[in-house]
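Folds vary. Our protein:
___
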Amino acid sequence: MVLSSVLGFPRIGANREVKKAVEAYWGGKLSADELTKAAADVKKASWLSLKERGVDVIPSGDFTLYDHILDHSAAFNVIPKRYLGKGLSPLDVYFAMGRGRQTEGVDVPASEMKKWFDSNYHFVVPEFSEETEFKLNFNKALEEYNEAKALGITTRPVVVGPVTFLALGKAAKEARAGFQPISLLGQLLPVYKQLLADLKAAGVESVQIDEPVLVLDSAAIYEKQFAQAYAELAPVSPKLVLTTYYGRLDSNLTFAAKLPVAGLHIDLDRAPAQLDDVIAAVKPTSLVLSLGVVSGRNIWKTDIQAALKLVQKAADALGKERVIVATSSSLLHTPVTLASENKLTPEQKDWFSFALEKAAEVAVIASVLSGSQDPKVAEAVEANRVSIAKRREFERNSDATVRNRVAAITPDMLERKSPFAVRKEIQQKQLQLPKFPTTTIGSFPQTKEIRQARAKLNKKEITVAEYEKFIEQEIENVVRFQERIGLDLLVHGEPERNDMVQYFGEQLDGFVFTQNAWVQSYGSRYVRPPIIVSDVSRPKPITVRWSSYAQSLTSKPMKGMLTGPVTILNWSFPRADVSRELQCKQLALALRDEVVDLEKAGIKAVQVDEPALREGLPLRKADWQAYLDWALPSFKIATAGVTDALQTHSHFCYSDFDDIFPSIQALDADVISIEASKSDLKLLNTFKHYGYSNQIGPGVYDIHSPRVPSEEEIKERIAAMLTTLPADLLVINPDCGLKTRGWAETEASLVNLVNAARWARQTYA
């Protein structure tokens, strides 16, 4: 019999129950016990739903209230000292690590966040030093296993592997120079042994142990550590299924296949070409091979016939008893279910498969390979064949105008008319900005009133004219606020936007949208990615009306705000039938038209955000250049159609930019803003190494935390920046947009930012 397996499930709840409960707890409206109950209800619903869909191997231990890596840090006592001794409960320490805390005499910043591999999910980076004392504060994997068992459901616990845990961490500030977290492996393993032995004693048969670093080039240096870790863990553990995802093993397969584990999981959605090499490597062993043939990263219906061919190849080589059909990765990157989508057309709905539908696909594929005679299985396979055929027929359609325009792109469309030094002088005469100009990244708080007005419009409880009048008033409020506190380069605040990607997708042809297809980005921040289904074009201007209205209210320069083509692509669910390059260039041309129209409307600066540029970089360095060869030109296509007088900005955040900083330089934006405060300004070392000739605004405070930075903190950050950056190039701004913040903390933080910039002008005159 071939088993079916799901590696992880969305932990947000079908109706965002976790977000609502967590934010109610933060607001003092829900107790810790009530939060625990809300979480238990979501876990129960997930486990029962997977069981109902026929999944054999159901995961547990993958749920989280904020972030699964943060859970692991808390469980293993990897808690920075700044969060201890404050009189906080363990739960409040946990949340303080994730989002900071500034209340009741406690003032601590949040820990650093990074993108989880090449996804838009953010994890909280563990901090290690020689002083780290590992111990098992709680065994989350065992707790959830028992929780599911009490419901009559046998699960496979999911645990982050020891090498990945250390490899994804960073040296704490107090660590000695040159300290490497991996050096702590010997101290960490006894705690893993305790955790796994407890699972074995509880009757757990197998454990999914996630080591996704194995798909990275850097894993090669950890060969000895992998051997050490699993030699120690295997004898005391249940059967271990070594789990990789998001990419291919490549040369790391050589040692991974020799580890003393019971099974190996590979991602055949992202890396189907690795199957032959993996089969050859595991055939002489007793390893069970788990095959990720149902995508955990997209929302397209699985082509069951194509998946069956891949799994059958493995079954023929190894025997059915050594094969498991699985999702390629956790389904945390997908919405919960299509069942709640009633505004998609029947044709559109038939194209898609969300988490619960993907679970059913896994079960059907496994049933077919197991020789099932169940007529329902045969019906599901036939229905899938018909659906795939209909989608392929739709994909044959294309917009000749859009395709021809992409084909007509020429090299001169990628370049500004003059070099930066010339543009800078022209722009300064027009903008008249002071030294150390202050600005924000674009969005201002999305208040309850804004969300309610948007909801009323969608329900047709107010007219479009009434809604637009409301938005105009919100824009005026934001403009007057910025004038009052003394910001230099203003923004309109984006009250009309539901999301920085969804909003643009709704104005472009080629996208479809969902009602409830939420996906976790970080903590309680969820997004609804738009879905690209056909060729993309701009039928009319998108932002010109609001930016030009904002500019009409003030004599100060107004910055137009756009999301860049690479980010729209990476933060959408893209098409699977055409290249990402083609989709990105279609987006770039649509945005080029928007930038040109903004300049014609009198806007003197335009920011085209690309926070997902680094995120989209392939995991293997050998694949980087092919990506950069279309990603960088796409940005330049979008921004190079204007005169020298227009100041172009771009924004980047929450990724390691060191290795692609030359590519960011090559974008030739007049100003870049980049997250820096949450990562302890370590980007300054990058500036020292590469230099930067254009204007730059490293973020001076973290906006993903409600904590208000003091004026002195911001002054210290500015002073640190000026040890590396020329004073005439430094721009003062926050780390990111202010959409998720409240007005009180926003005003206090920005007042401190403006005052710190004034101090800098006097100090560095």
In short: The mean pLDDT is 96. The chain has 27 helices and 23 strands. The longest strand covers residues 288-294. The longest helix spans residues 464-485.
